[in-house]
Amino acid sequence: MTEMTEEKSEFKLIEWIRQQRQDGDAKDVITGIGDDMAVVLVGGRKLLITTDVLLEGVHFDLERATLEQVGYKAMACSLSDCAAMAAIPFVAVVAVALPKTMTMDQAQRLYQGLQQAAGKYNCPIVGGDTTSWDKPLTIDVTMLAKVGATEPILRSGAQVGDTILITGELGGSLNGKHLGFSPRVQESRLLAQMVELHAMIDISDGMSIDLNHICCESRVAAEIDARAIPVSQVAQSSADPLTAALSDGEDFELLFCVSPSDAEKLLREWPGRSTVRLSSVGRIIQAKGEQRLFIRQMDGTVEPLEVKGWEHFNE
Amino acid sequence: MTEMTEEKSEFKLIEWIRQQRQDGDAKDVITGIGDDMAVVLVGGRKLLITTDVLLEGVHFDLERATLEQVGYKAMACSLSDCAAMAAIPFVAVVAVALPKTMTMDQAQRLYQGLQQAAGKYNCPIVGGDTTSWDKPLTIDVTMLAKVGATEPILRSGAQVGDTILITGELGGSLNGKHLGFSPRVQESRLLAQMVELHAMIDISDGMSIDLNHICCESRVAAEIDARAIPVSQVAQSSADPLTAALSDGEDFELLFCVSPSDAEKLLREWPGRSTVRLSSVGRIIQAKGEQRLFIRQMDGTVEPLEVKGWEHFNE
C-alpha cells in the first residue's frame, strides 16, 4: 500500500488519473483532464466543461459567511474557470448535500446566492441534485461554456520569452474576497479580443502553484519579479506580504502569458478599457530541470521559488 | 422561518427552485429543472445534462461495499438517467471529496470503479475536481449525453389510456443490486427504436414516487395492478414484498408509457430481442384530484396508493 504521507497529493492523483485515460472515444474529446475546463466537440462545435466542489469547513465557514455568499462563491468558482479559458458561460447544474438541520429557508437562501451569480453572469441553472445527510454542507457546480471570440486558451501554450501578466491583486483572499470576488469573465474576453493569449489560468490554489501548472503543461520555466507582484492591501498587513500574495490562493485573478509586444500594448491600452489593475510580473524562460519557478528578489538576486499554496489532498 | 417538519422536502425545494427560474437566456434551454436530464441547445444540437451526488452513509456504506463498487455505482446512476431519456452517454466529469484518511491506493480503487463503468458504457471521464476533508466520502458525477434515434423522452408525455411498462424486477436493491446494477442504456435505445415512447423515468427513489413524477408532469393519474408488479426474488423474502417493490428505490429500472398497441407489440417482440424482463403493470387514467396513484389489489378492489420511497431532504 502506498504511504500516504509520501505519495498522496491531489496533483499526483490527477496525474495518475490522466495516465489511465482511455482513448476509445477520444475523437470528440479535444482537451481532457488537466486544464481549467475540458473541451469536447458537440455537433462540430467546441463545448467546455468544469466541475467544482465547495465543502463546509474547507472552502467556507458558515460562522463567517452567509448562505447567500456560499451559493454565490460556488457559482463564481466555476465562472472563474470559464474566464481562465476565455470562454462564455452557458449553463450550470448544481448538486448539493444539505445538512439535515438545514431549514427550507436556509436552503432557499443558498439557492438565491447561486442564482445571484447565475443571473449576473448570464449562466442559468438548468438542473441539479438535492440530497441531505447529517454531515456538513457540500455544493458541486458543473458549468458548460461556449467558445468566445477565440479558441479556448489552454495552460499549455506559454512560449519562452513571453511576458507574464496578472489581473487585480493577490493575497489575503480568505479575509473576505473569496466570498464575493468578481470572476474575470468580461476581462478575459476583452483580453482575448485585444491580444493573442498564449496560455492562461485562474489563480485558485495560489499564484506559485498555478504558474507552475502553466510551466509544466507548456514545458517551460518562469522568472517572476518580487517588486512587480501586485500585493493586495489586506496581504500587506500580514507578516510576510509577498509570500501571502504568492501562495494564499483563492484570488480568482487571471494569470496569462503573451508576447512582449502584446504585453506592451496591453499595459498601454488596458487602463482605458477597464478599471481592473493589470501587472506585468515576469517572463517565461527555458526549463533546465525540475525547478521551474524562479524569483528575482528585491535586491536583484534570482532564487528558486518554492511552489506552495492550497493543495487539498495532502493537507 | 419555515417549519422544517411540515414544509421541508426535496421535492418542495425543487418545485420552489423551478419557480425561481430566470428565463433570460432560455432560448437555448429546452428542458430545465424537473426531468431526469436537462436539455440544452449547442450549435443547433440537443445536449443533455445530469448530475448525481453519492454520499457515504446515505447512498453507500464502505463496510458493505468496496471502493470499486462505489465508483461504479456513481457512474451507473448518471448512466441510468441517460437511459431514462433514451439518450446516448457522451462524457462525464467527476468531483470527489475524499476523507483525509483515504490512501492513494484507495483513491485509485475508487477511480477504477468509475472507469469500469465509463469504459463499459463508452462514456469517458474528461475532467473533475479532487478535494479532501475530514468528513465522509462524496462523489458527484455530471454526465452529458447526446440525442439518440429519437428525441429525448420526457416525464411529461404520458397520455390517458397508455400502458405502463417496467424493465427488470423491483425491490430489495439495497441488498446488493444497487452497487452493481446495469443501467438500461442499451434497452432504452432498443425500446425507442421499436415503439413510440410517450414518457419515461428511471426508478431511483421508488416506483410509486417515480410513477407519481410522471403523473404530475403529464397531468394524468395511474392505476397499477398489484398482481403484475415484477417483485424481485430478494424482495419476495421481505415482510411485505409488494410494498418493497413499490417503494424500496434504487432499482434503476425503466418505467415508461406507450400506447396499448405498442405495449402489445413490445410484449410480443421484446423477448426475442433482450433477456431483460419486461412487464405491463398498469395504465394511465384521467386525473381527478390530488391523488394520482391507484392500485388494483390482489382481490380486485381499487384503492389509492400511498406515494412513498426514498425522499432525501425530509428523512
Q: Quick gist of this model?
A:
Chain A is α+β, with helices and mostly antiparallel strands and 315 residues long. Helices cover 31% and strands 27% of the residues of chain A. A 7-stranded mixed β-sheet of chain A has the order 8-10-7-11-9-12-13. Chain A has a 6-stranded mixed β-sheet with strand order 1-2-3-6-4-5, with helices on one face.
Structural features, described:
Chain A has 315 residues and is α+β, with helices and mostly antiparallel strands. Chain A has 2 domains: 7-147, PurM-like, N-terminal domain (60s Ribosomal Protein L30, Chain: A); 163-300, Phosphoribosyl-aminoimidazole Synthetase, Chain A, domain 2. Chain A contains 10 helices and 13 strands. Chain A has helices at 4-7, 10-20, 67-84, 104-120, 177-180, 185-194, 207-218, 233-236, 241-247, 260-269, and strands spanning 29-31, 38-42, 45-55, 87-99, 125-133, 138-147, 163-167, 199-202, 221-225, 254-258, 278-285, 293-296, 302-304. A 7-stranded mixed sheet of chain A has the order 8-10-7-11-9-12-13. In chain A, helix 3 runs parallel beside helix 4 (104-120) and helix 3 (67-84) packs parallel to helix 6. Chain A is globular and about 55 Å long. The two termini of chain A are 20 Å apart. Residues 1-7 of chain A have low confidence and may be disordered. Chains A and B meet through helix 2, strand 2, strand 3, strand 4 and helix 4 of A and helix 2, strand 2, strand 3, strand 4 and helix 4 of B.
SSE layout:
2 copies of one chain form a homodimer.
Chain A: H1 4-7, H2 10-20, E1 29-31, E2 38-42, E3 45-55, H3 67-84, E4 87-99, H4 104-120, E5 125-133, E6 138-147, E7 163-167, H5 177-180, H6 185-194, E8 199-202, H7 207-218, E9 221-225, H8 233-236, H9 241-247, E10 254-258, H10 260-269, E11 278-285, E12 293-296, E13 302-304
Parallel strand pairs in A: 4-5, 9-12
Antiparallel strand pairs in A: 1-2, 2-3, 3-6, 4-6, 7-10, 7-11, 8-10, 9-11, 12-13
Helix pairs in contact in A: 3-4, 3-6
